[in-house]
Predict the 3D structure of the following.
Amino acid sequence: MTAKRAFDVAGGLVLLLALAPLIAWAALSVALGGSGPVLRRRTVAGLAGRPFTMLTFRTRSPLAALPLLLHVLTGRMSLVGPCPLTPGHRECAGEGRRRLSVRPGVTGPWQISGRSELPWEERELLDLHYVDHHWLGMDLLILARTLPAVRRRRTARLA
């Protein structure tokens, strides 16, 4: 087991246990908030391009990502990595195929750098830079910057 995978398992387990009440509350609020399934399913490309079904809560809030911690524990995702994309996405072909050499992340450079406001080309460059240069210190820095980045976007939407 690599240091990154060990960090993912330990960090994912700690986060899952610490956030269990919030996960239960989010699931309940989604279930009570309307009809339809609590979880949204989407097929994404994992390590080496192997497809898997990614689960998120059916909500537009940052809480939607909480079920991704289960994928971290099972080894389908990492806490930090490239943005998860569908297997046929153009960023998973050609030069972008390098992104499939690591697990997709719950967060990553794309998350702390503007996420949906970024042009596709810039997001692809951030992901490929991460793939080529990632190390545990970079992962820790990205994790530390994720919550403030999510809060900034949430505050900007409410203003």
